[in-house]
Amino acid sequence: MSAVELARLQFAATTGIHWLFVILTMGLVPLVAIMHTRAAYTRDPAKRAVRERMTRFWAQLYVINYAVGIVTGLVMEFQFGLSWSGLSKFAGNVFGAPLALETLIAFFAESTFLGMWIFGWGRLRRGVHVTLIWLVTLTAYASGYWIMVANGFMQHPVGYEVRDGVAYLTDFGALLTNPNALVALAHITLAALTTGTVLVLGISAHHLARGTPDTELFRGSLRLALLVGTPAAWFVATVGEMQVPLIRRSQPMKAAALEGGDIDRVQAELVHEHGPDDYVFAHDWLRFSMESMTLIGYAVSTVTLIAVLLLWKGRLWRWRPFAHLLTLMIPFPFLASLAGWALREMGRQPWIIYGELTVEDALSPVSRTSLLVSCTVFVAIFVALAVTNWTLIARFARRGPDATQLGATEPLGDPPGGTEAKQPVPTY
Predict the structure, then answer these.
(1) How many Å apart are CA 428 and CA 303, to the nearest integer?
(2) Alpha-helix runs per DSSP H in 313-419
(3) Which of 225, 189, 216 is nearest to 327 (CA)?
(4) Based on C-alpha coordinates, what's the Rg of the chain?
(5) What's the pLDDT score for residue 115?
(6) Does residue 240 or residue 202 have the better pLDDT?
(7) Which of 114, 154, 297, 422 falls between 20 and 30 A from 368, CA-CA?
(8) What percent of the chain has pLDDT over 90?
(9) How far apart are CA 42 and CA 25, in angstroms?
């Protein structure tokens, strides 16, 4: 493999693995926020206790994914300078600001709010505590927005001008409202909600099929997941289709590959416009990614609709084969998301910034041996982190709410009356 291919493989593998963490984080945190809000404002003590346990159980899975995923995110920031210095030199003045804002939001604001929420159980006022988890949700999606602003510029550069071989930002508003960023963000938001709700559906169905004593907890989780996930799963494909006109205008070769257009004609037009190069890149893989994503999307949306119908008279938790189907469905939204990212990133080749900077020109002046070593090390670390993450999630998911440690009330220090006088930290 050439140096360019190794660099692309390294970035594709690490980005793809990191994205698995991101989409689950974005998908789970709104559900946790809704659960916590319902628990905090439930007056009936018995129902409030169940909803608190529900919140803490799903939040623990979310926190595991967030904590491990934040490590992978740190590496993503460094790769632009390590392997793609040409990209930073050409476009750092434009998308440096969105990347910096994403870093500030994700690694400072979001993590700070999350830490306060985690350690605030039984210590903060109800309204403050609930506000914190909604701030975590808001900052998670704000972080996603800034990433899509930077990526949208790479897909369809706007609001800039090139002087002396360097891009300079001229219209910040155009950068922020780039349709290639906004429509993609809407699509990703629905995909994330679908991913998070399918995880909740699958784990809840697993426990209900096993005859869990926490029936009310998992039935409530399943209902909430269907309430959020069913419309998200149905509209994710619709919003995805809204990107097609944008692709036709900004990336004609991708459009030709997906729609069966005249690839030779588009190749000739691009050669005339941008100079000699191979603009026909992996069009078979593009179609495969698109078809896989579409097939999985419609399959998941159909299953969720059937699940809604089976809720009538409690058939959903009595029909074990369907419960097992919901559990087996957990990986598929992740596969669809990976296919979507492959479609988005591979489709603009050979450009790293469409029409302005090629992948080869963006590569750092490093040797093939250095890239081989870094690729091997990075991919191995990321795979190990992914395996660790899913092992922990699976372990705590199987153990159920009784093994939940997040938000567990702990006794205060020894009072004057001795250990017997200890009182637990009160909840709401």
Answers:
(1) 37
(2) 320-328, 331-346, 359-362, 368-399
(3) 225
(4) 24
(5) 93
(6) 202
(7) 154
(8) 51
(9) 26
Query: Is it the case that residue 189 has pLDDT exceeding 60?
Result: yes
Q: Distance between CA atoms of 203 and 126, rounded to whole angstroms?
A: 28
**Which of 263, 89, 245, 240 lies closest to 167 in space, CA to CA?**
89
Split at pLDDT 50, 70, 90, the class of 409 is low
| C-alpha to C-alpha distance for 36 and 51, rounded to whole angstroms | 7
- Identity of the amino acid at 190: L
3-state secondary structure of 338: helix
Query: Which residues on neighbouring strands pair with residue 357, listed in sequence order?
Result: 353
The more confidently predicted of residues 378 and 130 is 130
Report whether 357 contacts 91 (CB < 8 A): yes
- DSSP, residue by residue, 236-302: HHHHHHTTHHHHHHH-HHHHHHHHT--HHHHHHHHHHHH-S------HHHHHHHHHHHHHHHHHHHH
* Dist CA 340 CA 63 (whole Å): 25
Burial class (CB in 10 A: 0-12, 13-18, 19+), 132: buried
Amino acid at 15: T
Contact of 253 with 266, CB cutoff 8 Å: yes
End-to-end CA distance of the chain: 60
Residue bearing the bigger pLDDT, 426 or 188: 188
CA distances from 188 to 334, 368, 395 (A): 12, 35, 28
Block residue for tokens 């299953």: 303
In the block, residue with structure tokens 């922990």: 392
Cα(253)–Cα(332) distance, integer angstroms: 28
For 83-109, the pLDDT digits (tens) are 888 888 898 889 888 888 887 887 788
What six digits make up the tokens of 185?
A: 């963000």
Sign of CA dihedral 115, 120, 121, 127: negative
Phi, psi of 180 (to 5 degrees): -65, -20
Q: Which residues sit opposite 82 in a β-bridge?
A: none
Q: What is the pTM of this model?
A: 0.90
